[in-house]
Amino acid sequence: MQPASAQAAFALDRIRALVEADGRRTEWRLPPERDLAVTIGTGRRAVRSALEVLEAEGRVWRHQGRGTFAGQRPDIQPHLVASMAERTSPLEVMEARLEIEPGLARLAASRATPEVVANLQRVLQRLAAGTDTATVERWDGTFHRTIAETAGNRLLLTIFGVIDRIRQLPSWQKPRAEARTAERLRLVHVQHAAIVDAIRRHDGAAAEQAMRRHLVSLQANLQQALLGRPERPPPP
Predict the structure, then answer these.
(1) What does the alpha-carbon distance between residue 223 and residue 210 come to, in Å, rounded to a whole number?
(2) Cβ(43)–Cβ(1) under 8 Å?
(3) Half-sphere exposure of residue 81: CA atoms within 13 angstroms, side-chain side
(4) Residue-wise pLDDT tens for the chain (236 aa)?
(5) Between the chain's N and C termini, which has fewer beta carbons within 10 Å?
(6) Domain ranges in the chain?
(7) CB burial string 17-26: b at 16+ within 10 A, e below
């Protein structure tokens, strides 16, 4: 029998090929996890791991109670993202994130289930294990998107989605990569863990504060990379 890591890699290759072959159909739903496991000959854990990666890559999306669908969520129109990306800047995006994501973290803390907390902790493990820019971007995006989805407010989620799509554009990833260092990544891991801990405890005020502290820190790093300004420490 293949080791778990080999099964997960095999499942990822097979499901990715399946999505690329059949995912052009509108609202194409993938088979359930148990059926995928039987079809490709792996365990359900390997299938679940593969779907997590594909969701982080934006190749599939999940709707609770309906299943997993190929492609990106249909809420946001591509022309809107392209138009906004041309008229904004990385620092404006950070300002927008500071306005909405702390509130999303507060709402997520009031609505998170044990399954959501466990999923966030798995995402943090994958993020901490990331050794390249693409992996860090993928799981960092998944972390913040999971919190936004857990908040349960569809309007706020749509606004977050526009910001998130802009951040995923290749031309927007370079400034963030330049602002990222090993020391800053270690601080990010600590800040992410504090956010998850507050959500686990259903402490909305602490989750909001932890998210704001994290984003202010990222904002300072980005200002340093783009403008050469001295970094300002995050608030206590």
Answers:
(1) 20
(2) no
(3) 18
(4) 456 678 888 888 889 888 877 655 556 788 999 999 999 999 998 998 888 888 877 778 877 677 888 876 655 556 666 667 777 888 898 999 999 999 999 999 999 999 899 989 999 998 888 878 878 888 898 899 999 989 989 889 888 988 888 887 777 777 777 777 888 889 999 999 999 999 999 999 999 999 999 999 999 988 887 776 544 444 44
(5) C
(6) 4-70, 78-227
(7) ebbeeebeee
Query: Helices then strands (H, E): number in the chain?
Result: 11, 2
DSSP 8-state assignment for residue 132 = S
Cβ distance 157 to 149 under 8 Å? yes
User: Is 129 exposed, middle or buried, given 0-12, 13-18 or 19+ CB atoms closer than 10 A?
Assistant: exposed
Would you give the distance in Å from CA 125 to the centre of its chain? Answer: 13
Residues present in the chain in total? 236
The domain 78-227 is classified under which CATH number: 3.30.750.24, 1.20.1050.90, 1.10.287.110, 1.20.120.530? Answer: 1.20.120.530
What is the rounded distance in angstroms from the CA atom of residue 213 to the CA atom of residue 105?
12
What is the rounded radius of gyration, in angstroms, for the C-alpha atoms of the chain? 18
- Between the alpha carbon of residue 37 and those of residues 46, 52, 55, 78, 121, the distances in Å are 8, 15, 17, 33, 24
What tokens were used for 203? Answer: 């402490």
Q: Which two tokens stand for residue 154?
A: 């569809």
Distances (CA, A) of 177 to 120, 136, 170, 182, 185: 23, 10, 11, 11, 11
